[in-house]
Amino acid sequence: MTEKGQKIIVGFLLFALLAVCFFWAHNTSVKEQKKDDFLLYAYFSKTDGLNIGAPVRMSGLPVGHVFALDFGDNFLVRVTLSFDKKYALPVDSSVSIETDGIFGGKHIELIPGADDELLSSGDDLVYTQDVLLLDELLNKLNAYMEHKNEQKGVVDEKESD
Predict the structure, then answer these.
(1) Which residues of the chain have pLDDT under 70?
(2) CA neighbours within 13 Å on the CB side: how many for 113?
(3) How far is CA 125 from the centre of its chain?
(4) Which end of the chain is more exposed for a tag (fewer CB within 10 A), N or C?
(5) pLDDT digits over 61-78, tens only?
(6) What's the CA gap between 97 and 126, in Å, rounded?
(7) How many helices (H) and strands (E) does the chain have?
(8) Of 83, 81, 72, nearest to 43 (Cα)?
(9) Nearest Cα to Cα of residue 111 among 95, 124, 129, 123
């Protein structure tokens, strides 16, 4: 076999491998809604790092996934949650965006309420908590420390007079 023929075969095998990888990635990342899935909507002002297909957890256990992300009213992000209808939630349940560890991926955490009335598929979750971003937290801590140092400097100047 000639060198040109070997390069063609290697190129074809590489192309086939890439096609298989793309097909696998698409099938594992795109979650489809089942006929009996329960859909709820939650509105957040920040969803940094939350992706379609991210897990929805209750008490740390996976119960569903993020089905869609889009804009809702007043430029809030509408997150569509999809999970099995056996996990019916009270109307006063809350939802938050959490991080797996310090730098891990984002997921949705459902916290069941105590009300006797249950949410129906298509209802909105009213109590939401946005994602906590590490860089925002560090910036706030830095600003707080600078403010404290400025106050300390003013106090030190008054004491030296």
Answers:
(1) 21, 23-36, 134, 154-161
(2) 16
(3) 16
(4) C
(5) 999 999 999 988 888 999
(6) 14
(7) 2, 8
(8) 72
(9) 95
